[in-house]
Amino acid sequence: MIRLTTAGESHGRALVAVLEGVPAGLPLVATDIDPELRRRMQGHGRGARMKIESDRVQFLSGVRAGATLGSPIALLIENRDFENWRDVMAAEPAEAPPRRKLSRPRPGHADLAGVLKYDREDARDILERASARETAARVAAGAVCRRLLAEFGVEIGSHVVALGGIAAVLPEALPAPLNAAADRSPVRCLDPEATKAMVARIDAAKEGGDTLGGVVEVVARGVVVGLGSHVAADRRLDGRLAAALMALPAVKGVEIGRGFEVAALPGSRAHDEIHRAERGAAVRAGGFARKTNRAGGLEGGMTNGEALVLRAAMKPLSTLMSPLQSVDLETGTSAPAQSERSDVTAVPALGVIAEAVVALSLASAYAEKFGGDSLGEMRRNFEGYLARLEERRTALGTRSG
Question: Which long-range contacts (CB under 8 A, 24 or more apart) does 373-378 make?
Fold first, then answer.
């Protein structure tokens, strides 16, 4: 399996991602990763931090001469803003009380629970790691996994389906490639009228010192049938994907397919009828297809050959320029929560980050199913699996004939 560990604080020297389990021989260069880092920084409603940073990846290990070695891949993303925070974030003991101490925790943030759990006096010790800045490391690692998945014909994209209470009207069929269309919108929404309304809603929230949440949809096409397993809870791919999305900062809800919608329907209208399909794209689904995809490409904890469709709901960010009431941890008195530099909304960026963690989960599932020490070995195992699926499809056609 592919495993990711990240390190680094929001205003620290750098972010680091260590990715284990990527096979040797995968072509990989910085230009496979840097565009994804830039996509994460875009979107109407982002804050001043995005004007300071210019995220680029540096390979510290695991890559040589433009290809992976099979050893852990270490990625570094420098924080340019560290120069403005060097004395605040220095590792050495401070001679004077540190600047920018945070003693008034923000409702909805990790501040208070983290201070109590880790027995700290300054909530900055919590917020620096809890900050969504860490997701840049996940996006970098996810870009490596996207590069691996591309070798097996998988394409991952996302778009915003709701923001600030404004829902998009979606097309009957999503464009392909999805990101080429979504990235043209300042809020990564496919509905032009909804885009205008969302931009206006963001501007109004900024004027009022408020923040906005929303919902993004991630779609993975070209995924083969049979990833994951029904035999044990921790091998169910739906659970692993949901956990990866729920672990993103500010995400409070995850849906696979039309999960919440079908909960209100009878079974006769909730499930996707199965029919035979001809060869071609259907080979990855074993020769079967579904005219609908309410299940979102997952049944019984396994991929079924249809596109994976997942949604993540993001709450409004907890840093408000017109703060809610809190308690000062130094005096015990009621006081407005502390304000930190933040975004009005990060929903457009959430789609990019969600793509990355879906790529991580999917790449791990591919490595688990078709594992090998090299990309060539992994590809041979994959092609052998497709050949067996085609044998079954052909045999079924013979019997039905």
Answer: 373/23, 373/24, 373/70, 374/23, 374/24, 374/25, 374/70, 375/23, 375/24, 375/25, 375/26, 375/68, 375/148, 375/151, 376/25, 377/23, 378/23
Paired residues of 374 in beta bridges: 24
Ordered by where they begin, the domains of the chain are: 3-390 (3.60.150.10)
Best CA proximity match to 201, nearest among 96, 45, 60? 45
Neighbours of 98 (CB within 10 A): 13
**243: phi then psi, degrees, rounded to nearest 5:** -65, -40
Nearest 5°: phi and psi at 148? Answer: -65, -45
Q: Can you tell me which residue has the tokens 């803003």?
A: 81
Peptide bond into 192 cis (omega under 30): no
- From the CB of residue 246, how many other CB atoms can be counted at a distance below 10 Å? 14
DSSP-based three-state secondary structure for 173: coil
Whole-angstrom Cα distance, residue 45 to residue 347?
A: 9
H or E segment and range at residue 86: helix 82-89
One digit per residue, the tens of pLDDT, for the chain of length 401 reads 899 999 999 999 999 999 999 999 999 999 999 999 999 999 998 876 666 778 999 999 999 999 999 999 999 999 988 988 988 998 988 777 778 899 999 999 999 999 999 999 999 999 999 999 999 999 999 999 999 999 999 999 999 999 999 999 999 899 999 999 999 999 999 999 999 999 999 999 999 999 999 999 999 999 999 999 999 999 999 999 999 999 999 999 999 999 999 999 999 999 999 998 876 557 888 889 999 999 999 999 999 999 999 999 999 999 998 899 999 999 999 999 988 878 999 999 999 999 999 999 999 999 999 988 999 999 999 999 999 999 998 888 676 55
The radius of gyration of the chain's CA atoms, rounded to the nearest angstrom, is 23
Asked whether 323 and 337 are in contact (CB, 8 A), the reply is: yes
